[in-house]
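Ligand-bound model needed. adenosine-5'-triphosphate.
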Amino acid sequence: MHNLTWAFKDSVVLARRSILHILRSFDQVMSLIMFPIMFMLLNRYVLGGAIDTGKVSYANYLFAGILVQTLAFGANYTTINLAVDMKEGIIDRFRSLPMHNAAVVVGHIISDLFRNIISGLIIVLVGFVIGFRPNASAGEWLLVALLAILFTLAISWLSAILGLLVKSLEAAQWMGFIIIFPLTFISSAFVPTNTMPSVLRVFAENQPLTHVIDTMRAWLVGTSLDNSGWLSFVWCIAIIIVSVPVTAWLFRRRSN
Amino acid sequence: MATKHSRISASVAIQAKGLRKSYGEQQVLKGVDFTLEQGSILALLGPNGAGKTTTIRILSTLLKPDEGSASVNGFDVVKKSAQVRASIGLTGQFAAVDDYMTGRENILMIGQLYHLPAEDLPERTRDLLEQFDLVDAADRPARTYSGGMKRRLDLAMSLVASPAILFLDEPTTGLDPRSRLALWHMIKELARGGTTILLTTQYMEEAEYLADNVIVIDHGQVIAEGTVSELKAQAGAERVEVTLKRAKDLHVVRKLAGAEASSDEETLMVTAPARKGAESLYELLGKLNTAKIPLESAALRRPTLDDVFLALTGHATEEEAAKEAKHA
Ligand SMILES: Nc1ncnc2c1ncn2[C@@H]1O[C@H](COP(=O)(O)OP(=O)(O)OP(=O)(O)O)[C@@H](O)[C@H]1O
Ligand SMILES: [Mg+2]
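Prediction:
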């Protein structure tokens, strides 16, 4: 028990460090604020007019897509932060301390959660400004928040694996874009999947991001839910269950 | 037997036995042995790539040896790594400070990770900032610090928990002479207070000033061990060294300097063993003065790391060899 308490306290100390990085780095503050706003506005006003989302207005349709995309990019910072830490001398210092080593990873994951809570709130605000009109109950909002947290954790742990695999900061930066951009575009985030060519469509309809987006969309604006509800939770939990031990194994391997 | 054993472990702070480490084909450590008494300073002296950092990384639990064993503060570095970590402070070869955090935040964070009582931390941090002359910069992000300031912060961070054993990997590399001297004083002070210190360096004078004992390593092997004066004795005595103004004096001066003198026509330098130390220089200068021979410079030259190396290994340090290769 004692051990676990310390592991948690160490993680909080390092999460605080990582959050200070967010607040004190111009890059990170800009991407935290500008990225969701920019994507929201571009999609809504450039693409929005040309996309047919049936009975749902495009602003209503878009909201869940942008939210999930932003959460995915936010959670991806673990890749970059971990890659930087592993390269710099500071990881040796941490490893020479009587602290819990896992805290180095967990700290970044907690700070991703912090980052995503902030950008989630920004998206809700901007969403209302551009015409997002949800009809969700308080309970449904709570479910959306819960799924958002679970999804953030899943992507963060996956990102931790990437962060431990890449050899350079540049690779870490590109990795996120190469993986997350296609995943969000080949999903139901910005356009309904039924207009996609069949191969893409099969992929889009069965990948986890679509399930998460469809679930949030259903709860927020009342679109149909199908199997996505439980599938989105199963996906997130499965990703966490697999990636936590893989991260631990990689971390131990990388540090020797 | 049992009493003998416990007496040994009470006074030995670090013991390394047959440490070996390879990276792929390359054998980086080929069986390194040494012991270090509590409260003493040991310098690992060696050229680039000798295996100094690798040794420190093994002793500070960052790296597992392929073979051999080591104990730090009585704990095995592999089997009891947690206890080892609680007894050591490490200042690595490259600064390990968080650039976005202030000096104060850096020290506080490390104190928290050492699990020190929260109520003692602010005061401890203030003391360290003062001791390392960082009070004015305490609340600025470390990325605005100069190299020397970062190095001092780095050192302050490894001292938060007042560790019994301190590892310093090239602590003064990149410092100006004044900061170097200040750091030397601090290191001495720590040892006087009972801290055991293992440091690495490439500078003979640093080892000479700081260390009670020196271990010279080259290509992953200990090639000499002892006090600095013992090593210097092996490297030969001090030498007098005069540089002439005129090439035509070379022959005469060489004769005046004695049978063992040698000269270089290109640099116009004559050197000879200084059996009587400074006295020898004094004597030679007297003779040259009488003969009215103008000099560019004159000096008493102590054996350097390069001389020690040459004497011990028959080859110069890699750096020196590279310099010579360039000249040839
Ligand atoms: N992770 C690694 N992978 C492969 N080779 C390594 C690794 N770390 C060190 N080496 C090699 O081991 C040898 C010893 O390295 P080490 O860092 O211990 O030397 P050093 O004595 O500290 O040198 P310096 O004075 O340059 O710091 C070098 O040849 C180096 O290239
Ligand atoms: Mg080194």
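The longest helix of chain A spans residues 138-165.
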